[in-house]
Amino acid sequence: MWGMMPILALETDGKSVAVADRSSQPFHLSMADLTVARGRVKDEKYRLLTLDVPQTAKLAGAVHKGICQAISLFTEVPPRGARDNFGFAAYDKLAELLVNTRNKQSWERFFAPGIRLYHALAGSPVQPGAYHWVNTWGSADGADRGLYAAFLLEAVQILKKPSLKESADKFRESHKLWLAFADALLPDDIPLLGESKKLIQRRHDLFIGEGESALSEIKQINRRLDELLMQSQKDFPLSNAQAAELRSNLRDILLKIKTVEGQAIDLLQRAIV
User: Fold this and answer.
1) In whole angstroms, what is the distance from residue 268 CA to residue 174 CA?
2) Fewer Cβ atoms within 10 A, N terminus or C terminus of the chain?
3) Measured between alpha carbons, how far is 78 from 179 in angstroms, rounded to an integer?
4) pTM score, two decimals?
5) Are residues 224 and 125 in the same domain?
6) Which run of H or E residues covers position 219?
């Protein structure tokens, strides 16, 4: 795959290894299989890192630096790539592409109703869809906004800055909007999309909660998602007009997110100085 996740080797006897890989449960595999997996992307060069004891004396500085970096990703020139691929500029770009039918890169032109729109919303076997990016790809649902709010509440204690709580409250508000955005991507009242959403979320919850013991059910879900993918190619449930309505709804939620997160970042900038 094009993306590799860092994993933590917990213990090994030389022939097998137990690893932590995002799930709450450890995974067990042979050293031979792990070696093959580590070599799948050549650019990674079998990289290893040994974790040492945390340096708590550097914690406050690291937290402050992390908050400043988050602010800059929202408001300043991005570390790489086009400016409108990051932060508030990215929200404006996506909002336009959702409804501007004249733009060659618009969703109407690029993701016409059918399998291409299904790919954009629910993903494919080799590429996550928008629902994945918001609710299952990161460390938590709702585009990690609830997790970030929890981090800011811890930062209140670490940095001795009570005003950070105001920004945390705004990110919790943003978290709810991101959940609404994800829900609107695959509406329940459209059976093909609603079932896809439930299966994607169920598969993720099984992976996180049960790990390798849920492999059999996860495989069943994958087979059903493959069937729904093929169904979307033959009989997609949205007309052009209905797809336009879905995109317009997504745009409205996205602009609400931008407003709330604008307030959150403004509060964060004031608190961190």
Assistant:
1) 14
2) C
3) 26
4) 0.94
5) yes
6) helix 215-234
Exposed / middle / buried, residue 45 (Cβ in 10 Å: 0-12, 13-18, 19+)? exposed
Contact 67, 272 (CB under 8 A): yes
* Residue 29 and residue 133 in one domain: no
Q: What are the DSSP calls for 242-264, one per residue?
A: HHHHHHHHHHHHHHHHHHHHHHH
Per-residue pLDDT at 2: 60
pLDDT value at residue 81 = 87
Residue 13: give the domain boundaries: 8-44
Residue 24 φ/ψ, nearest 5 degrees: -75, -10
Chain mean pLDDT for the chain: 95
Is residue 2 included in any domain, yes or no? no
Domain count of the chain?
Answer: 2
Does residue 147 fall inside a structural domain?
yes
Rounded average pLDDT over 138-146: 96
Q: Burial-class residue 71 by CB neighbours within 10 Å (0-12, 13-18, 19+).
A: middle
User: Does 100 map to a domain?
Assistant: yes
**pLDDT band for position 122 (50/70/90)?**
very high
3-class SS of residue 138: coil
Q: What is the pLDDT of residue 159?
A: 97
| pLDDT 10s digits, 163-201 | 999 999 999 999 999 999 999 999 999 999 999 999 999
Task: Compute the distance between CA of residue 89 and CA of residue 138 in angstroms, rounded to an integer.
Answer: 21
Helix (H) or strand (E) holding 12: strand 8-12
For residues 17 and 34, the answer to whether their CB atoms sit within 8 Å is yes
Residue 94 lies inside a defined structural domain of this protein: yes
